[in-house]
# Entry
Amino acid sequence: MFRHLLKLTWKRKSRNLMLSLEILLAFAIVFGVAAFGARYAQLYRMPLGFDAADVWSVTIQAGDNGKQHFDAGVYDNLRRGLLELPEVSGVAFAAFEPYAMSTYTSDMRRGGKDPQVHTELIEVDDGLAGVLGIRLAEGRWFSELDNGSAARTVVINRRMAEAMFPGQRAVGQQFIDGEGGKPGVSYKVVGVVDEFRAKGEFEAPVNFAFLRFEAGKNDGDIRTIVLQVKPGTTRDFEKRLNRRLKLIRNDWAFQITPLSTLRKNMLHTRATPLVLVSVIAAFMLVMVAFGLFGALWQNTTARIPEIGLRRAIGASAAGIYRQIVLEQFMLSSIAIALGLALLVQLPLTGVLGESLNWTVFAAAAVLSMGVIYLLSLLCALYPGWRASRLSPTEALHYE
# Structure
């Protein structure tokens, strides 16, 4: 049966070429959307490295455009004043909160001639690990033991540790920040976390480092307060929190947001491109389906004498129906095989990096094949049914 279908397909190769191209186009469209969605699903299941439940952020707006430097007393007053609120169980400070669009990067290296390791950075204080529930895989978090350290202490994620110190234990190692061979600030690793994705579930894993912040010792300030509140705290607490902040510093403005709200906004922002691409792809698939249906209908109509002859020599209606559907599946299989042969070059060459790894490629390929076979089946059902309903007499007298 397969050999017979292959012969029929080859004999009508010029007519089937356009059908195969339409199916190939549809397959490429579906594969792109499926790969996009599969990558998002893969990222969503990966660990974040922190717990955003019952955590709020407060952004300090001092109105000085960052020119004023806060001393240690400012941070201490804010911490003590906020911990007096019964709803607050933890206070920490950071350059920016999780799920923020802020990004600070630098190129790190072990020495002047070692390769650069591109890294995302964030300045945080000693209390952030407790507030966000960050767990250490190796070493420890910052503490007062690091006061006066010659090198600035950092905690890095596992990905950066493997890139910076392959095959070695990262804790206790040092690296520098500088361009070319010119040494910059020296950093000492005191701890390693397995993962930390500051921008949430749809962010790809990156090299990440937490820099310990000491008021008055580092350039600039960190102006985001990260609060751990007790479970069940409602948005009504925002008013009481703002009043307490105003009592501490009446000349400042404060932007208060639960991390759950920031998470929702970030997920919406990241998911919007996927939704838009899916809608556009759906319209294109509908257009391809109409074109495929029309071509199948025309091909079936042109084969009415052939169908009549087969019916006259004993072919059943079910056999005619099955032949039309299987021929369409044959064309779909050829187009899919060609499409996979082209698309497999993407993960082989690594041109898209981790965005199209083998897991994503396999999931997108399977999903795309299922959609294309379903589309082919739906487009072939009615032409096949019409062909199977033809009587031998009517078909043989067709002009």
The longest strand covers residues 185-193.
